[in-house]
Task: structure prediction
Amino acid sequence: MRIALLTDLHANREALDACLAHAAGQGADRYAFTGDLVGYGGDPARVLDTVMEHAARGAIVVKGNHDEATAGGPRPGMHAEAREVIAWTRGQLRPEQLAFLDALPLTFELGSMMFVHASAHEPQRWEYVMGLVEAERSLRASHSRMVFSGHVHAPALYRRADDGRMGAHAPQAGTRVKIEARHQYLVIPGSVGQPRDGNCAACYAMYDDESRELTYFRVAYDHGAAARRVIAEGLPIVFAMRLVEGI
Result:
């Protein structure tokens, strides 16, 4: 089974449509959305409609911190611009869409795979996995061999060897990574809707659980149109600039 791994969509319909079309062309059998479906971007209702349609056909979907804030109210630590978009987003969504966000689980397990937005260690705390220390903490908290997450808007891959040693791999778009059965891996595909690694192309990854191969992808899309949508909706211009600059 080839699973397309998409995270941090952030209400960016242009990026989502481009990644879904690319994944279909790569032969995806199933889709997993690991949180932050909304927030920052200008088209939350359309993005949620798309994800809900995929969920009805068996897609895996877990909750992100922006999804939680939209459904139940932002936490005190969320910065002012993000809070502004959350309030606007709530007004754009239908009751059934808000209910969908509210009902999403924090984690989902399938065989030897775990899906979570942030860290598998206390996922409700929304810890950012920024290096080996946080990656090891997340992997130790899970019994799964493969942990798929998001929250960090740049692609990353961590490995915990069978002897406990940690390592990091710099994923290259389009290059297949062979997954060793005896190791444990933390896969962060990068953001579909708001990449922050200096490259404005959308990110997603594909995992083949039969061949045990993982591939990261970058997908060009009309980021200018997505940025103009943010501006047209009167949202903070910083979120439009991030789409253009990839930061």
User: Anything to note?
Assistant: The chain is about 35% helix and 20% strand. The first strand starts at residue 2 and ends at 6. The two ends are 33 Å apart (CA to CA). The chain has one domain: 2-111+173-182+189-245.
